[in-house]
């Protein structure tokens, strides 16, 4: 707002149409007022709508210097009021009477008319008055945004018009592209304190107010670059707030890790995605890695705290969701490796939970079952193994880490089912009934430790089967072949004559 409040034409009490002789005379008069401490003699016609100027020798010297060359004079004339028609005069009288709303209405009516050399000044005056009213809630957002639109309509009209005489002192300006860029940068700086989350305007509203005109792309490009720090600052603030929340949650052993991470995503994801084009590449990488690190931290703490205490499937699903989002935006190689390794753990446990959902269908306590229920157990186990096989086929097609963890899943299944079989045999004394189940179990590749467990118990099983055969004098001997680590031999029922 400094380009308006401390505009050199205002400070030197000169119109933008004043010649250099008039400007120099006013400059000399101001020097005398300051020298003799007679500032109150300075007539500021705009004090009703603008903050008071604190005059000093430095201030007036700087103002005089700023409009001593054509390019700077043009720039500052674009940000000062101009009296060029009857509407402008009526507006000026309203200002002197501190009737801001009436002056705004007069100019607004004029801007409803087509833009011409004659009412260019009214367009510019309306845009300036709208910018001045940015912080005032009495002026509607619609009027302010209309003022922003009018500001760019007028600058486009000026820079595209071959006749510049309607803006005094600009006859010798030829580099109009630079004029347009400098104007856009200044508008962006004026608007900046009022744009962003929790402020009066959204960035999208400002961009949307820029009229669709030929060659206006350079203006939009300048505006978005000037705002590049806004999303960066907002995103940093949100991430810092999440980090602070995690620090406070440490007392609860990170009970709310997922809640904090999900809340962070809800509050910044749209801003992060929509701001990508507005940030420099280095800024985007920085904010991406900050966000990814915080999300990963939330995921880890949530998982470690809640996996065994709550619904494991839900906890794992939420954890994977946060981690996958973190991985998708992370650019730092080391952090990506960490997140990827964590995801492998989460996905492995997710599959184990799905296996658990099958094995938990086994009876909790075999000793309370009826005879009929006990007789049905071998068939029920075979049914669960068929269900497990179907799950493995399904998971293998969609889980990228499936091949690496399938041995772990098999271990989980074999260990759980075999322990149940041991209870079954100990309780019923029935060995033969489990032959088909055991033959099926030995087809699953296992880790060394589980294979050792399996082999040890199979030896006992075979010995019991051999004793039963010898005692009965039956010709049929049932043999289960022993598995080796990571490799299964399918054993058939053999008949020994």
Structural shape: rod-shaped
Catalogue the unreliable spans.
474-479, 481-497
Main sheet attributes: strand count, strand direction, barrel closure: none
Please count the helical segments. 22
* Approximate strand percentage: under 5%
Helix content: 55-70%
Secondary-structure element string: HHHHHHHHHHHHHHHHHHHHHH
Radius of gyration: 40 Å
Number of strands: 0
Helix/sheet category = mainly alpha
Question: What's the end-to-end separation, in Å?
Answer: 105 Å
How would you state the average pLDDT, rounded? 76
Describe this structure in words.
With 497 residues, the protein is mainly alpha-helical. The protein contains 22 helices and no strands. The protein is 66% helix and 0% strand.
């Amino acid at each position: 707002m400094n380009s308006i409040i401390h505009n050199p034409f205002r400070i030197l009490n000169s119109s933008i149409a004043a010649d250099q002789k008039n400007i120099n005379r006013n400059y000399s008069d101001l020097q005398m007022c300051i020298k003799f401490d007679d500032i109150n003699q300075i007539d500021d016609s705009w004090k009703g709508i603008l903050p008071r100027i604190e005059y000093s020798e430095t201030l007036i010297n700087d103002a005089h210097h700023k409009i001593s060359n054509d390019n700077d004079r043009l720039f500052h004339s674009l940000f000062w009021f101009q009296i060029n028609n009857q509407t402008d005069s009526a507006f000026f009288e309203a200002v002197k009477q501190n009737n801001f709303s009436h002056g705004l209405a007069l100019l607004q009516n004029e801007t409803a008319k087509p833009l011409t050399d004659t009412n260019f000044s009214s367009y510019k005056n309306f845009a300036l008055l709208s910018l001045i009213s940015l912080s005032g809630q009495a002026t509607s957002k619609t009027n302010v945004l209309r003022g922003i639109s009018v500001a760019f309509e007028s600058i486009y009209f000026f820079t595209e018009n071959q006749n510049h005489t309607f803006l005094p002192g600009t006859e010798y300006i030829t580099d109009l592209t630079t004029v347009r860029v400098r104007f856009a940068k200044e508008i962006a700086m004026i608007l900046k304190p009022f744009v962003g989350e929790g402020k009066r305007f959204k960035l999208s509203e400002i961009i949307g107010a820029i009229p669709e005109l030929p060659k206006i792309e350079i203006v939009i490009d300048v505006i978005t670059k000037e705002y590049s720090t806004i999303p960066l600052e907002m995103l940093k603030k949100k991430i810092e707030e999440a980090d602070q929340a995690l620090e406070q949650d440490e007392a609860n052993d990170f009970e709310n890790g997922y809640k904090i991470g999900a809340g962070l995503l809800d509050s910044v994801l749209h801003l992060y995605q929509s701001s990508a084009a507005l940030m420099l590449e280095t800024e985007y990488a920085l904010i991406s890695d900050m966000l990814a690190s915080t999300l990963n931290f939330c995921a880890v703490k949530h998982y470690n705290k809640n996996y065994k205490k709550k619904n494991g499937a839900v906890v794992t699903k939420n954890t994977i969701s946060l981690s996958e989002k973190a991985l998708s935006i992370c650019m730092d190689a080391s952090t990506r490796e960490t997140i990827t390794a964590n995801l492998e753990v989460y996905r492995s446990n997710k599959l184990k939970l799905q296996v658990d959902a099958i094995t938990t269908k086994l009876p909790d306590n075999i000793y309370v079952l009826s005879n009929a229920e006990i007789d049905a157990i071998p068939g029920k186990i075979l049914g669960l193994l068929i269900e497990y096989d179907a799950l493995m086929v399904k998971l293998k097609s969609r889980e990228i880490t499936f091949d690496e963890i399938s041995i772990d899943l098999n271990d989980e299944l074999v260990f759980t089912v075999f322990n149940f079989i041991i209870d079954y045999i100990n309780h019923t004394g029935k060995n033969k009934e489990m032959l088909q189940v055991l033959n099926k179990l030995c087809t699953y590749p296992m880790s060394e430790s589980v294979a050792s467990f399996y082999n040890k118990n199979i030896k006992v099983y075979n010995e019991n089967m051999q004793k039963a055969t010898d005692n009965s004098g039956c010709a049929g001997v049932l043999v289960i072949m022993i598995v080796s680590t990571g490799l299964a031999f399918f054993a058939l029922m053999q008949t020994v004559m």
